[in-house]
Amino acid sequence: xxxxxRFNKQLNRIAVSVIRQFDEQxxxxxxxxxxxxxxxxxxxxxxxxxxxxxxxxNNFSHYTGMSGLLDVRQAACYFxxxxxxxxxxxxxxxxxxVGATEAISASLLxxxxxxxxxxxxxxxxxxxxxxxxxxxxxxxxxxxxxNHFVLTPEMIENAMAEHGNQVKAIILNYPSNPTGVTYxxxxxxxxxxxxxKYPIFVISDxxxxxxxxxxxHVSIAEFIPEQTILIxxxxxxxxxxGWRIGFIFGPERLIAEVIKVHQYLVTAAxxxxxxxxxxxxxxxxxxxxxxxxxxxxxxxxxxDEMTKFGFEVAKPNGAFYIFAKIPSNYEQNSMKFCVDLAExxxxxxxxxxxxxxxxxxxxxxxxxxDMKTLKEAMKRIGRYMKS
Length: 387
What we know:
alpha/beta, 4-stranded antiparallel sheet, globular, single chain, Aspartate Aminotransferase, domain 2, 12 helices, 7-stranded mixed sheet
C-alpha cells in the first residue's frame, strides 16, 4: 500500500534547508574547514551548567506548566526590561519555548490561515517560509539588496499597496541572518510608524539582540507592543543552542492563543534547561559581553580579508555572519561557487541561494570559529580566488 500521495500536499513545497544539505554534503571532505552553521563556538558558561547539575541532583525532572516555570518567565521579563526597555507581565505575557525555532512555528501557526500573506525582507533566514507554507499561506519577499539589506518604510508601504488586506503579518529578523545587518533606533521607530497604520502582526525575531556591536539593540516592541510578537532566546547570547530555550513575548490576549499551538507542539520546554535559563538570565545577564568582543575582532578580520579578495560586503553590525557578493568575474551560481571552493580548497561556506532568490550571487560565512581557524580559511579562500 502506497500512502505517499496522502501526505499534506504543502510538504511538496518545502524541503530540508539548503544550509543543512550543503553542510552534510561537504562534511566528508578531508580536512574541511566548515564556516557553515550559525552556532557559537563558545561553550555554555560554567555557572549556567552548574545550575543544570543542581536541577538534576534535586530531581527537577518532571513537566512544568505549558508556559514554563514562573521564575524563568520572571527572569526573562527582568532581562528584557533591563536590556531593551520593554515590559511584560511574567504571569501572562511570556511563553517559554523549545528554542526560537519553535517560537517561530507556534507564532505563525497561531495567526495564519489559507490565503494569508506574510511580508519578509529578503534575503532572509530560511526557517520561516516552510512554516508559512504549512499554514497554506504565502510569503511575500521585499528585496532589500538595493539598500544594503536595510528594510525601509517605503518598501513596506509599496508591499502593502500591492497586497493590501491579504497581508496578515510581517517578519523582522535583526540583527539579520544572513547579512548581520541591524537597525538604528531611528530606523526601528520609522518602521514602527508605518506598521502601526495596518492591522497586521509584527513577528520580530531578535535572537541575535545581544550580539549587536556598535549601538544598543532596539526592539520594535518598544514602539508597537500591541502588534508585536517578540521572539528571543538563549542560543546565541549564552552559547546554549543545544539547551533549546526560547521565548515569545506579547500582549496577554495574543499569548493566550499562541499557547494553544505551543501546547500541542511540545507540551513544555525541558525543565532542566529552564532551571539553567534562570541562572543565564539573571547572574549571566552580561555573559555575551566577552563573546561579543571576540566576534567583533573576527568580524573585522574576515571583512577585511574578503574585501581584499574582491567581494562586496555590507559591513555587518550584529550576529556573526559575513554576507559577501561574489566578484562579477567569478561563477555567479552560488551553489557551484561554494561546491568548487569546498572541493578545491576544503573550505565550506553557505551559498547565498539558501536565503532565497535575492541571495543568489552571494555567499555567507559564519565567523563563529576561533581566529586560528578563520585565518587558515581566509588563506585558502585567497588562494582559490587567485587560481
